[in-house]
Amino acid sequence: MTAVLVVVAFAAAYVLIATERIHRVAAALSGAAAMVLLGVVDARVAFFSEKTGIDWNVIFLLLGMMVIVSVLKQTGVFDYLAIWAAKRTRGRPFATMVMLVVITAVASALLDNVTTVLLIAPVTLLVCDRLALPPVPFLIAEALASNIGGTATLIGDPPNIIIASRGVLTFNDFLVNVAPIVIILLVVFIGLCRVLFRAAFTYDPERVAALMALDERETIKDRGLLLRSGIVLVAVMVGFVAHSVLNIQPSMVALLGAGALVALSKLDPPEFLEEVEWPTLVFFMGLFVMVGALVEVGVIGRLGTLLTNAVGDHYFLASSALLWGSALLSGIVDNIPYVATVTPLVQSLVEAGHGARQATALWWALALGADLGGNATAVGASANVVIIGIAARNGHKISFWQFTKYGSVVAAVTIAASWAYLWLRFYAFG
Amino acid sequence: MTARKLVQPFPLVTPDTDAMEAAQTMAAQRLPGLIVCRDDGRPYTILPGSQVLRFLIPTYVQDNPGLARALDDEASEELCRKLVHSTVRDLLPQPRDLDELPVVDIEATALEVAAVMARMHSPLVAVVDDHDGGNRVIGAITVSRLLDHLLPERPAN
C-alpha cells in the first residue's frame, strides 16, 4: 500500500514539475515532503544513504562550477573571445556564426549551458548590430550549439553529472565515449546552420569597419584576475581528467577549484556567489529525495528486474529505445527530473550486463538522448528558454514554432547520427 | 511653502514631438527630464533623462556594461542617431507603467512634492492647476529646486 502511495505522490509531483503549474522547486520539495510524511524517508535515507539519499556529489559539483563561473564572468573573457573571433572572420556572416557556435559549444562543454548562453548572447547581439545582421538565427544557433557542446563532458550538462555519479563514470569515460561523437555532431550542425540559416548571411562590406572598430582588449576588466582564473581553470580541468588516478571525486575537484579562485580573486561573497543558482540546487535535492523514496519502497528494484528480463541481451534495442525515447521526452519535459528518475533503472540494466561494453553503452544512449533531445523544442532545454528571453528583451521575438522549426531538424539529425555512432562503436562488431 | 511658490516654467512636449528635438532641449537647458502633455494640455507623463538613455543604449549593453568599453566614439554617434525619425512616444516606457504620474497640485506642500518624487523615483514633478477643472500644466519642480528649498542654507565661509 505504501508503495502505491509513494508512486502516486511521485507521479503527482512529476506532473506538477512537467506542467509548471507551480514552480518546479516547490513541486520537488512538495514531492519530497510527501515521501517524508508517508514514512518512507527519514534523515538517514535523505541525507546519508548513498543509494536513496541526496547525491551530494552532484550538488557540490554544480555548486563548485557555479562559483567558478561567477569569478570567470567578472573577467570579461567571453566578450573578448567573441569579438576577437568575429574580427578574425572580417565580418563574413557564416564564418562569424561558425566562430560563435564553436566558442559556445566548447564553453558549454566546460561550463553550464545556461551560463554560457547568458555570457555569449549579449556580445552576439553587439556583433550582429555592428554588421547589421539579423541576430535571431545567431542566437538560435548558439542555444542549439550549447546543448550539443554540453553533451560532450561530465560537467557539460546537469544530466551528465547525475549519470556520471549514479553510473560511477569518470570524466575521461565521457571524453572517450561521448566527446568524439559530439565533435562530429558539431561539424554536422555547422553544415546544417549553413542551410537552415542561409537567409541570414547577407554580407555588407560597408559594415565591416564598424565591427573592426570594436576594441576587444577593452572588455577585459581585470587582467590579473583573468590570468589567475585561467590558471585555476586549467588546473580544474587537469583535475577532472586525472580524478580517477588521483582518487578524488569531480565534486571535490570543482570545490577545490572554486575555493582557490575565491581566495585568489579576493572578490566579495555577493560577487563569487552571483551565478550560484540556489533554486536549481534545492530542486535537485527534492528530486533525489523523491527518486530515493521509489528506491526505498522497492519500486525501482521491481521495475529494474522487469526491464532486465525484458531486455535480456538485446542491448542495441534497449539502447535505441533509450536514445530515441529520452530524446522525445527531453524535448517536451525538463531532462533533469527525467534523468534523475531513469538512472536507477538504467543502473539495473547496466549491472545485469556484468561490465559488458554493450550494456555500459546504455549510459551513453541516455546522455545523448536526454541532452540532444533538448534541442527539439523551444522549451526542451533551459538554454533555449534563456536565449528566447534575451532575444525578447532586446526587441527580437522568437516564437515557439520559429525555434522549434530549426531545433527539431537539428535534434532529429543529431540523434540519428548518435544512433549510428552507438551502433557502429558498441554493437556492430560484437 | 507650496508648489505655487516652487514651480518654474518648464518646456512641454507631446508624445508626437520629435525625439531628437526633445533630447536636445533637455541637454541645452540642463534639464533632468521633460513634461509630456496630451494634445489638450493635460499631463501625460514625465520623460526623465535616464529614459532617453535607456532608449539609446541597447539592452544587451545595459545588461553587460563591460561591452560599452569596446565601442568607440563613432559607435556612440551611431547609437544617438536612433533618435532621428523617432518621437517622444518611442522613448516612453510601456503604457502600463504610466498609470501613476508624478504630478502635484499647485497647492501641494513642499514635503508632499518630495514624497511624490521619492515614491516615483522621478527627478521632477509636473505642477497642475485644476481650479477651473482644466488640469492644466503650469510648470514643474526639479529635485534640485526642491532640495534647495528644503535644506538649511550653507554657512558662508
Top keywords for this entry?
heterodimer, A: 430 residues, mainly alpha, 23 helices, B: 157 residues, alpha/beta, CBS-domain, three-stranded mixed sheet, 8 helices, 6 strands, 18% strand
Supply the CATH architecture of chain B: Roll
Rounded mean pLDDT of chain B is 88
Oligomeric description of these chains: heterodimer
Q: Count of helical segments of chain B?
A: 8
Radius of gyration of chain A using CA atoms only = 22 Å
CATH topology of chain B: CBS-domain
Tell me the fraction of residues in β-strands of chain B, as a range. Answer: 15-25%
Mean pLDDT of chain A: 90
Low-confidence spans of chain A: pLDDT under 50, at least 5 residues? none
Number of strands of chain A: 0
The string of secondary-structure elements of chain A, in order, is HHHHHHHHHHHHHHHHHHHHHHH
Strand pairing plus helix content of chain B: what structural class?
Answer: alpha/beta
Overall geometric form of chain B = globular
Which two chains have the most extensive interface, and how many residues on each? A-B, 22 and 15 residues
Number of strands of chain B: 6
Determine the number of helices of chain A (DSSP H or I, runs of at least 4 residues): 23
Could you estimate the helical fraction of the residues of chain A in percent?
Answer: over 70%
End-to-end separation of chain B = 28 Å
Concise overview:
The complex is a heterodimer of chains A (430) and B (157). Chain A is mainly α and 430 residues long. In chain A, 78% of the residues lie in helices and 0% in strands.
Q: Can you offer a commentary on this structure?
A:
The complex is a heterodimer of chains A (430) and B (157). Helices cover 78% and strands 0% of the residues of chain A. Chain A has 23 helices and no strands. Chain B is an alpha/beta fold and 157 residues long. Chain B has one domain (3-150): CBS-domain (Roll), CATH 3.10.580.10. Chain B contains eight helices and six strands, in the order αβαββααααβαββα. The longest helix of chain B has 11 residues, at 110-120. The A-B interface holds A 76, 79, 83, 121-123, 125-126, 129-130, 210, 213-216, 218-219, 221, 390, 393-395 and B 58-61, 63-64, 66-67, 69-72, 74-75, 78.
